[in-house]
Amino acid sequence: IYSTQRRTASLRKTSPAARAARPREDDPIFAAIENHLKLENAWCDLEEAREETQAKAQEKHGRRPSPVVSWRNYVCGSDHIESIREALLRSPGIDPITIETEYWDVQARLLGTELAAKEWDERTGLAAVRRDIDRARTAWWQAALQMAKTKPRTPAGAGALLTEILKDLQMDWCETALATVVKGLAAMEAAAPRSQIKKAA
Question: What is the spatial distance between Cα 21 and Cα 19, in angstroms, rounded to a whole number?
Fold first, then answer.
């Protein structure tokens, strides 16, 4: 699951020169990484265009209503209300009934803010822009998961995947990617003796 705050921190531009510098070996991880970066940059471009358009719209229509609300010490949106609820229920000295009551109140407040934000988008012409961004974000996320599950076949490929993990270490796909790197390295190590024997022959 990704939130607006996390994905904004993750967005970054990668220069064509940097992408071209990666070694082109018979390793599927490089194509997966390229696809992930391409879709991330496409998403980033849409977000930048949306920010410019929204800034101009706010001059005429006022600020867009925020789609988040406060809940105790949290800033809560619909995409992470469940994780906040679970965290609060695990807190010591918390009355579960009180948390459940607050939870439904927060749900009602979120519905109101989300409807207000959507109405603002329709009025300003930004609804279509946000739909494009949602599609781009989904495509990027699917590419990230595909990359995370693609097993490197070379040490260079394993290193390239680890580099991507370090760039976005807070993202949920990183745990899957780390497990994939471990499996890939184990497969390379197991295959090494056979390769050496073949080379010697």
Answer: 5
